[in-house]
């Protein structure tokens, strides 16, 4: 994880140097890989089956520097594709499918350059032993944008290799060939043709193109930009899709792990005799040094009964209460890091026009599939099936935990029943691996809902103070002070965190982009008694809630329409023009300024994330007696650049809005008596279909630069602010703390 | 004990606990029925028992003998999808998919019992089925489309 986040930080120290010249790297014939491929795959000539390759080649494949932005990828077709003699073409992807539709989008990108339809490709999840190292994992809304060029280049290279071999087999110049699906034929004589499968039989003849093959111009796209059904839908509606919690192998056992009774408790001693006598228990594993105690049994129920029967003695730590955390989570004092300084905001803010404070609470990612992994560990090898966003990080931590080399550990990512940042960890895989090693059998560990709620890392609470000076209908100075727990620093070595200074995950969305001459953002890192970490969008939702609520307050204070107020403060830059376009599109879609039914009002807000700009108009009403806000409709306009799969992007936008509504109205985690109060969904409810708004989506591509941008997280940015702003429009009262629970709504109404 | 699951009698030992969910998943390998919360709150484990949408995670095995248990695996014959599945496919409803078996089984049970269910009936029936990805817009539209499909099929059957 540390490499991942350092690579993302513009100002971060350089990650360890890898393949500095990778930008110039050309595809090479990997004869050895090919020969090994033949040996491994039998009849299949395996482009890309690099099982058993030496670590040196894995290192070569690790080409982070060749892609701008986050993560990185090789453009070596050997790493991505396998052409089989039966004319199947396989696409192996390192990015995991957790609902965001990435397997479909990447298949569309590959199919475009291969001249195929996406359904001509068999999309498979690459394991960590297939030659491409992807330390970035699947996070940060960067999968499509970071893979776009490498994957197109790999596909184009494969296409030209196939064409050259087809020309040789048909004794024609390459220019005389035409492609039809997975076959080439001689122009004017379609009977003289050769299939990809037949070409695969001559794999040893294939020539590397001397020049980098040309990529299709955007005007010729036939697959990119068109809605395509997802490759995983059918398996997900028939129950056939296999997730980490579903993996089954012969002879498997089940594991469970002892959890501390409070956040700060440490294990002093444990007596295992009673647990060992529980029916079905096969092994009790105690590793006091690492604070690990687990039970292996013939069923989950027996494993948990074993855990219950353990006699553990704990050193109890401080019993934290939520009120103490709220008091500590405040801006101000020493330690603030200035992450944005334009002009001289402090000078202009000696007598601010308006100051307001906002808060967001702890929240839990709560993927509906809890943490799950199956480990099969033997003396010199381990195979891990895991529901993970970070297969290579899992590999490293599993190898460390069980004393194997990383090359001896293969992680096979499954489908994920939701990730949302929570499956960027490695705990459950390490637990399964430790237990499997001790038991000498494959062991599955699947967390309970209580474990999922109480034993992970959560979204940190935040506190914001915003101040502005307004003169002549314009903001002349704006300052955002923000305090947060760690988001990405949780995974940093301390030294790296100290060097970077401020957690850019925590201040994601906090910077002030409006055209204001004096802007200042200062952030405080606050220690918390609970591990906090990535949650979909990281700081985006909380920071946007604060900044965009404040913009609304300023607009109303100035007596200016909130849409007009935002447009007025956009610069005449590409970003400013893109933001103007989505604000105007959302306003039109959301009928901004048009008559409303009695008792309803609209609010508007916008955000920028991963270079995607989003604006939303929320329409709300209020049950005054109950203090319940009802969100009827959210109109969303988004410019995420080149869209690969419009329907997939719409789905992400719809889901992102639901996350925004959930955070605005429902989600709040509390700490009581030293532990997470919630044990199940009764105490940590999620948004339901009954509270879900209708969602309308407009997709724009204003820049038209041919580059896709992020869509997994950006759409959730403005929702909470748009709802709060609509509430103000309805009631004249301002809600400055999410979620807008009935208690807070009633308090605001009577204020 | 013997349980009738998806039309076939299956021998179930109960070695994986007292609740139906774990017999389905860990004993019989019918992993299409998902675990979400273990206390009947989230709906991921919804199956149909004698025509009624039922939370498998809190349904004891004892008492299920002689009853018709249906899981997502039994909805289609492999080639032809159930109309509810077909509608969920056409609306590209799932994202992560973990909740989908429960959503689909809930809709199947509702529409078999009440073929003219209103949108409000559908929302009420699904109001305790969480979808963490937030596919609610499409779940609702897919369920409404499924109702039309099933009505059309009945029409054809009657004609």
List key phrases describing it.
heterodimer; A: 751 residues; alpha+beta; Aldehyde Oxidoreductase, domain 4; seven-stranded mixed sheet; 30% helix; disordered N terminus; B: alpha+beta; Ubiquitin-like (UB roll); DNA polymerase, domain 1; 2 domains; five-stranded mixed sheet; 5 helices; 38% helix; globular
What's the mean pLDDT score of chain B?
Answer: 97
Distance between the termini of chain B: 43 Å
What count of structural domains of chain B?
2
Radius of gyration of chain A: 27 Å
Provide an overview of this structure.
The complex is a heterodimer of chains A (about 750) and B (about 160). Chain A is of the alpha+beta class and about 750 residues long. Chain A is built from 22 helices and 26 strands. Chain A folds into 3 domains: about 1-240, Aldehyde oxidase/xanthine dehydrogenase, molybdopterin binding domain (Aldehyde Oxidoreductase, domain 4, 2-Layer Sandwich), CATH 3.30.365.10; about 245-315 and about 370-445, Aldehyde Oxidoreductase, domain 4, CATH 3.30.365.10; about 330-360 and about 460-750, Aldehyde Oxidoreductase, domain 4. A 7-stranded mixed beta sheet of chain A has the order 9-10-7-17-14-15-16, sandwiched between helices. A 5-stranded mixed beta sheet of chain A has the order 12-20-19-18-13. Chain A has a 4-stranded mixed beta sheet with strand order 21-22-23-26, sandwiched between helices. In chain A, a hairpin with a 4-residue loop joins strand 14 and strand 15. Chain A is globular. Chain A starts with a helix and ends with a helix. In chain A, about 55% of the residues are buried. Chain B has about 160 residues and is an alpha+beta fold. Chain B folds into 2 domains: about 1-75, Beta-grasp domain (Ubiquitin-like (UB roll)); about 85-160, [2Fe-2S]-binding domain (DNA polymerase, domain 1, Orthogonal Bundle), CATH 1.10.150.120. Helices cover about 40% and strands about 10% of the residues of chain B. Chain B is built from 5 helices and 5 strands, in the order E-E-H-E-E-E-H-H-H-H. A 5-stranded mixed beta sheet of chain B has the order 2-1-5-3-4, with helices on one face. Chain B starts with a strand and ends with a helix. The mean pLDDT of chain B is about 95. The chains are: A alpha+beta (about 750), B alpha+beta (about 160). Chains A and B meet through helix 8 and helix 20 of A and helix 1, helix 2, helix 3, helix 4 and helix 5 of B.
């Amino acid at each position: 994880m540390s490499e991942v986040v350092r690579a993302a930080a513009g100002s971060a120290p350089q990650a360890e140097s890898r393949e500095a010249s990778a930008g110039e790297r050309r595809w090479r014939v990997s004869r050895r890989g090919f020969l090994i491929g033949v040996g491994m795959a039998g009849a299949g000539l395996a482009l890309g089956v690099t099982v058993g390759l030496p670590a040196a080649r894995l290192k070569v494949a690790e080409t982070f520097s060749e892609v701008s932005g986050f993560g990185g990828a090789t453009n070596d077709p050997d790493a991505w594709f396998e052409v089989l003699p039966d004319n199947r073409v396989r696409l192996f992807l390192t990015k995991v499918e957790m609902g965001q539709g990435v397997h479909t989008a990447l298949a569309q990108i590959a199919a475009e350059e291969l001249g195929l339809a996406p359904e001509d490709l068999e999309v498979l999840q690459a394991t960590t032993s297939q030659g491409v190292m992807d330390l970035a994992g699947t996070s940060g809304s960067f999968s499509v944008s970071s893979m776009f060029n490498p994957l197109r280049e790999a596909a184009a290279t494969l296409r030209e290799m196939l064409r050259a071999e087809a020309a040789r087999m048909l004794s024609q110049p390459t220019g005389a060939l035409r492609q039809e699906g997975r076959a080439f034929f001689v122009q004017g004589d379609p009977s003289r043709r050769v299939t990809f499968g037949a070409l695969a039989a001559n794999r040893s003849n294939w020539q590397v193109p001397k020049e980098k093959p040309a990529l299709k111009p955007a005007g010729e796209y036939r697959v990119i930009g068109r809605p395509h059904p997802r490759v995983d839908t059918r398996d997900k509606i028939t129950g056939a899709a296999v997730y980490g919690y579903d993996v089954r192998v012969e002879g498997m056992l089940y594991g469970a792990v002892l959890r501390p009774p409070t956040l700060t408790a440490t294990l002093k001693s444990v007596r295992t005799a009673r647990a060992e006598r529980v029916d079905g228990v096969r092994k009790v594993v105690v590793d006091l040094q690492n604070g690990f105690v687990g039970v292996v049994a013939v069923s989950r129920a027996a494993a948990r009964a074993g855990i219950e029967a353990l006699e553990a003695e704990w050193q109890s730590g401080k019993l934290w209460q939520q009120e103490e955390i709220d008091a500590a989570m405040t801006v101000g004092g020493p330690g603030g890091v200035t992450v944005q300084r334009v002009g001289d905001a402090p000078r202009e803010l000696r007598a601010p026009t308006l100051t307001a404070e906002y808060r967001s609470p702890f929240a839990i990612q709560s993927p509906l599939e809890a943490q799950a992994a199956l480990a099969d560990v033997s003396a010199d090898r381990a195979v891990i099936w895991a529901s993970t966003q970070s297969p290579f990080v899992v590999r490293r931590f599993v190898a460390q935990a069980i004393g194997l080399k990383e090359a001896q550990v293969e992680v096979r990512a499954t489908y994920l029943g939701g990730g949302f940042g929570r499956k960027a960890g490695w705990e459950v895989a390490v637990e399964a691996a430790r237990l499997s090693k001790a038991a000498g059998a494959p062991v599955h560990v699947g967390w309970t809902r209580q474990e999922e709620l109480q034993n992970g890392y959560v979204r940190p609470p935040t506190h914001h103070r915003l101040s502005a000076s307004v003169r002549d209908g314009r903001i002349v100075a704006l300052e955002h002070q923000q305090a947060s727990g760690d988001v990405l620093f949780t995974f940093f070595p301390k030294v790296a965190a100290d060097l970077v200074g401020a957690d850019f995950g925590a201040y994601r969305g906090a910077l002030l982009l409006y055209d204001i001459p004096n802007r200042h953002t200062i952030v405080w890192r606050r220690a918390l008694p609970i591990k906090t970490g990535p949650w979909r969008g990281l700081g985006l939702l909380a920071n946007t809630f604060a900044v965009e609520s404040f913009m609304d307050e300023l607009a109303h204070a100035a007596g200016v329409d909130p849409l007009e107020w935002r447009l007025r403060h956009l610069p005449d830059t590409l970003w400013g023009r893109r933001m103007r376009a989505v604000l105007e599109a959302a306003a039109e879609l959301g009928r901004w300024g048009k008559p409303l039914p009695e008792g309803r009002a609209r609010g508007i807000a916008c955000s920028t994330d991963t270079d995607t700009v989003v604006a939303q108009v929320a329409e709300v009403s209020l049950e005054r007696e109950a203090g319940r806000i009802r969100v009827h409709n959210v109109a969303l306009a988004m410019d995420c650049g080149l869209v690969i799969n419009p329907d997939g992007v719409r789905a992400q936008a719809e889901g992102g809005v639901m996350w925004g509504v959930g955070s605005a109205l429902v989600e709040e985690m509390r700490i009581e008596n030293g532990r997470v109060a919630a044990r199940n969904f009764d105490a940590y409810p999620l948004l339901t279909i009954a509270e879900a708004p209708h969602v309308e989506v407009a997709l724009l591509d204003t820049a038209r630069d041919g580059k896709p941008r992020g869509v997994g997280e950006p759409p959730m940015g403005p929702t909470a602010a748009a709802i709060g702003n609509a509430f103000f429009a309805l009631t004249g009262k301002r809600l400055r703390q999410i979620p807008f629970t009935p208690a807070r709504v009633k308090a605001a109404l009577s204020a | 004990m013997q349980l009738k699951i998806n039309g076939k009698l299956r021998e179930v030992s109960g070695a994986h606990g007292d609740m139906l969910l774990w017999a389905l998943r860990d004993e019989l390998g019918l992993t299409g029925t998902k675990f979400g919360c273990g206390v009947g709150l989230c709906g991921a484990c919804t199956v149909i028992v004698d025509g009624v949408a039922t939370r498998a995670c809190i349904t004891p095995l004892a008492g299920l003998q002689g009853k018709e248990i249906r899981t997502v695996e039994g909805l289609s014959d492999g080639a032809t999808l159930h109309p509810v599945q077909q509608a969920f496919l056409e609306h590209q409803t799932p994202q992560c998919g973990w909740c989908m078996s429960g959503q689909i089984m809930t809709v199947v049970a509702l529409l078999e019992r009440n073929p003219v269910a209103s949108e409000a009936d559908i929302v009420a029936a699904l109001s305790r089925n969480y979808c963490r990805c937030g596919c609610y817009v499409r779940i609702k539209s897919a369920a409404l489309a499924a109702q039309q499909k099933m009505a059309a099929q009945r029409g054809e059957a009657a004609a």
